[in-house]
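User: I'll paste a sequence; please echo it back and then give the predicted structure.

Assistant: Echoing your sequence first, then the prediction.
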Amino acid sequence: MLTGNLNVVEKYDYLAEKFRRGYEFLRTTDLKALAVGRVDIDGDDIYASVQEYTSLKADTCKFEAHNRYFDIQYVVEGEEQFGYAKRADLTEEAPYDEMNDIVFFCEPEEAGTVLLKAGDCIVVAPEDAHKPRCQAKEACYVKKIVIKVRV
């Protein structure tokens, strides 16, 4: 699935080599065996963040976005209701944290969600705000790999 405003949909090539390297890592690595933490694919240009957590009620999660990286978020185990909104439509809750490349937003009146189950992935660009870690029907264990791809 690719979603976005037509004004920016051709801005990025989601099949460029840097993305293909991330997809290949997801296809060829024993993801269940990876320990929580960072796995370098190409230094700071492409790396994986291995995460494990229990999904949370949506009202306890926040919308976020990144300036320097795309996220390829891949669910290894579990499921989550992944929130999505256009970043330009949101109000910043706190200033951008350059060191951690993250900004958080106030909850919008309207936003969409996508149910991600094991084997599903979603790619979010810097223009996309996203709200990960939200429980679907009920809280569950989630193992997720977030491939960070430098813009």
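The helical segments are 17-28. The chain has a mean pLDDT of 95.
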